[in-house]
Amino acid sequence: MTISTTYGYIRVSTREQNEVRQLIALRGAAVPEENLFIDKQSGKDFQRPQYQRMLRKLKKDDLLYVKSIDRLGRNYREILEQWRVLTKEKSVDIVVLDMPLLDTRRGKDLMGTFLSDIVLQVLSFVAENERTNIRQRQAEGIAAAKARGVRFGRPPRPLPDNYHSAYQKWKAGAITGTAAAKECGMPLSTFRYRAKTYEK
To answer: CA 66, CA 124: separation in Å to the nearest integer?
Structure first.
């Protein structure tokens, strides 16, 4: 008889994010400390070292806990692909703590598998849709802020004291743009860019 092992996988998107919330949940599910695998990088691809290490250890009938479905991938397609690899190729059971319906230990019959697959597809879609909505809200927020005159990035350096006189001479055609830029100690492209805002 095969003895199954319990594992837990945690992913946080960047080095700054905190994995404590996921750790607490997996410890609550009695996942042994030595079987917790944590990746602190984006879900951009699956070359994540800890995820790959865990995949190599997983064997038939082992049990894997994740806090939420989006820990398995960054989009609908990747989540479904990893679910297939884990449940079909590796033949392990998965429990998604945020969604009790996604527990492959239940309903091993055809109907149970069918329901689990439907729930997984819906949740994967919702997870990806939410990420798309967040990006859209961010873009809309930035556009609205720009329309209100909010400036992003570093503030421009103050103009040199002699900018006005150099600008006037250049506008009057007394000197070239290159000479005016040199007089102000800045590249020609910067001089021209600043001239546009100066005119306004």
So the answer is: 14
pLDDT grade, residue 42 (50/70/90)? low
H or E element: which one contains 50? Answer: helix 49-57
Catalytic residue among 13, 42, 68, 91: 13
CB 69 within 8 Å of CB 96: yes
165 C-beta neighbours (distance < 10 Å), count: 12
Q: Is 4 a catalytic residue?
A: no
pLDDT at res. 153: 66
Query: What value does the mean pLDDT of the chain take?
Result: 82
Among all chains, which residue has been given the structure tokens 């527990």? 103
Name, in order, each residue with C-beta under 8 angstroms of 146's C-beta and a sequence gap of 6 or more: 152
10 DSSP β-pair partners: 38
In the DSSP assignment, the letter for residue 87 is I
Torsion sign, CA atoms 128, 49, 7, 94:
positive
Q: How far apart are CA 80 and CA 122, in angstroms?
A: 11
Contact status, residue 144 vs residue 169, Cβ threshold 8 Å? no
The helix (H) or strand (E) run that includes residue 96 is strand 93-96
